[in-house]
Design a protein that fits this description.
1 helix, mainly alpha
Length: 107
């Protein structure tokens, strides 16, 4: 289109600057859209990692409860073993006393 003679012709430098500005803004828009997609992908991965972490935490707590039950069973077994050992020692001492009495009675 040809500009009428009463309107000034646009400056060629201004036209080049406008095109460069439009190109720069277009590139910045494309970069911001790419960063938006990247952020969305990272968010999805973070949510997946959070679900996995929560599942691992639940598994840890379950194992911790099982470990506590096992420790209680071990402590009960140790208590019973101590009682049995004490009873065996008593029986041993009682047997020694009986042997001594038997020896004393034979003399």
């Amino acid at each position: 289109m040809i500009a009428p003679k009463d309107q000034p012709q646009p400056d060629k430098n201004a036209l080049v600057r406008a095109r460069i500005t439009a190109l720069a803004l277009g590139l910045l828009t494309i970069i911001s859209l790419l960063l938006l997609v990247y952020a969305y992908i990272q968010k999805a991965e973070a949510e997946k990692n959070m679900r996995e972490a929560l599942a691992q935490k639940q598994l840890y707590e379950q194992c911790q409860l099982e470990n506590e039950k096992a420790m209680q069973a071990v402590q009960e077994s140790l208590r019973m073993a101590d009682m049995e050992r004490a009873r065996a020692e008593e029986n041993y001492l009682h047997s020694l006393q009986e042997i001594e009495k038997t020896k004393a009675n034979r003399k």
